[in-house]
């Protein structure tokens, strides 16, 4: 309920203008976003590597609707990968990149002019082809630098196209990763297919709860149902031959992953958390020997990302909204208009059966990181 209210409020260009202009918003951006440009991203990646953490970098932006902008995003990633390689950060996949298909053209209108939102997103063959070609070039640059790409999951209308793009890319670059969202009803079926795809060559799969506001026909909306779906999907992935990437800050799900991970070969899965969230837990897991990758966004188009994080943390949003009414907050110049997707709200309590925490967690932190070669 609160999330839907946030969605309605944050989608307004007026609210966007107010929020992007406040000093409080800028302070929150600094917590969750590495900075405006590739140099900031490289600096933060270097710091995280020095702390024994793996990294995936995301150039912020989504819903690109023209081919030139999509090409600019592709170029940004390729330049970033060159900088990372020059800094020695990409070896063995220690720093990789995450790419949103809609940022590189998935929503490009079809040549008949039908707007993609009037159809199924990702339905435009032209959009899917463009996104594939752009990500393929990013994957080639990543491969040349000794690392790889993970294809982020966006709203449910893009799921089929995103999974297809990743599957096609894996024919040439087997380490390209897919992302699935436990909130979607279809995901348990998807992870079963992914977990057994190619048996020896089963892919890297990031499992997250899902940050988009979805219709009840497509997604679980009860947080407890989402958690149960996460646990079911996690079990499928952890019992499969692939490389699971467990993307959550939820302590109970982290404990379940640790317990299931005890039955897996050494270093055959990783935890993933977002930059600026539960940094203490990231450090604790890494110190315990686990592989931990931090998802680090950068770039000027941070509004949608910030709103998703705030929707997961209503208390922070309250602070931010209050700042609009504080001196220096209300009359700041507005930022650029645009659209933003939104995330879920974390409930105060929910019940989930969790196995006891294991004494240790398997992984390979503290050693040179070995990338999944699949
Ligand atoms: C590495 C990574 C990659 C992701 N990639 C995608 C993707 O491709 N597509 C997609 O839809 N979603 C993605 N997500 C987002 C994900 O779907 C969730 O929206 C987000 O992770 C919050 O869910 P949670 O599992 O942490 O659980 P929650 O139930 O939201 O949170 C669990 C606990 O984590 C802590 N916490 C959560 N959020 C915050 C916060 N903002 N500040 C402080 N503490 C917090 C709190 O202690 C909270 O109780 C990704 C998340 C991660 C970690």
Based on the structure given, which CATH architecture is correct?
Answer: Alpha-Beta Barrel
Low-pLDDT sequence parts? 327-374
Count of strand segments: 8
Considering DSSP H and I runs of 4 or more, what fraction of the residues is helical? 40-55%
In what range is the share of β-strand residues?
5-15%
- Report the structural category: alpha/beta
What is the CATH level 1 assignment? Alpha Beta
Q: SSE order, as H and E?
A: HHHHEHEHEHEHEHEHEHEHH
Q: Give me the CATH fold name.
A: TIM Barrel
Q: In whole angstroms, how far apart are the ends?
A: 41 Å
Globally, the shape reads: globular
Major sheet size, sense and barrel closure? 8 strands, parallel, barrel
Supply Rg: 20 Å
Strand order of the largest sheet: 1-2-3-4-5-6-7-8
Mean pLDDT: 82
How many domain modules? 1
* Ligand set: flavin-adenine dinucleotide
Tally of DSSP helical segments? 13
């Amino acid at each position: 309920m609160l999330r839907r209210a946030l969605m309605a409020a944050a989608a307004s260009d007026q609210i966007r203008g107010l929020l992007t202009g406040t000093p409080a918003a800028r302070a929150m951006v600094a917590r969750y976003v590495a900075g405006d440009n590739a140099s900031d991203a490289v600096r933060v990646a270097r710091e995280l590597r020095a702390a024994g953490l793996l990294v995936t970098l995301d150039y912020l932006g989504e819903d690109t609707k023209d081919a030139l902008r999509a090409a600019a995003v592709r170029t940004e990633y390729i330049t970033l990968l060159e900088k990372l390689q020059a800094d020695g950060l990409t070896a063995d996949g220690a720093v990789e990149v995450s790419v949103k298909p809609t940022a590189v053209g998935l929503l490009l209108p079809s040549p008949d002019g039908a707007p993609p939102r009037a159809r199924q997103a990702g339905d435009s063959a032209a959009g899917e082809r463009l996104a594939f070609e752009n990500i393929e070039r990013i994957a080639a640059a990543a491969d040349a630098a000794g690392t790889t790409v993970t294809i982020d999951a966006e709203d449910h209308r893009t799921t089929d196209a995103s999974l297809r793009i990743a599957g096609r890319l894996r024919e040439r670059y087997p380490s390209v990763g897919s992302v699935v969202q436990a909130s979607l009803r279809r995901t348990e079926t998807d992870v079963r297919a992914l977990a057994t795809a190619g048996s020896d060559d089963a892919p890297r799969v990031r499992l997250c709860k899902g940050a988009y506001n979805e219709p009840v026909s497509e997604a679980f909306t009860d947080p407890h149902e989402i958690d149960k779906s996460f646990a079911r999907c996690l079990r499928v992935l952890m019992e499969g031959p692939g490389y699971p990437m467990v993307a959550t800050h939820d302590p109970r799900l982290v404990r379940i992953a640790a317990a299931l991970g005890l039955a897996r070969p050494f270093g055959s899965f990783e935890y993933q958390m977002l930059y600026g969230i539960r940094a203490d837990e990231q450090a604790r897991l890494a110190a315990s020997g686990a592989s931990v990758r931090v998802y680090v966004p950068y770039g000027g188009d941070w509004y949608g990302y910030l709103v998703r994080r705030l929707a997961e943390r209503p208390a922070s949003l309250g602070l931010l909204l209050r700042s609009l009414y504080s001196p220096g907050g209300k009359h700041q110049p507005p930022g650029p208009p645009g659209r933003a997707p939104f995330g879920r709200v974390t409930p105060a309590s929910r019940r989930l059966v969790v196995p006891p925490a294991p004494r240790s967690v398997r992984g390979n932190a503290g050693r040179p990181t070995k990338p999944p070669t699949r």
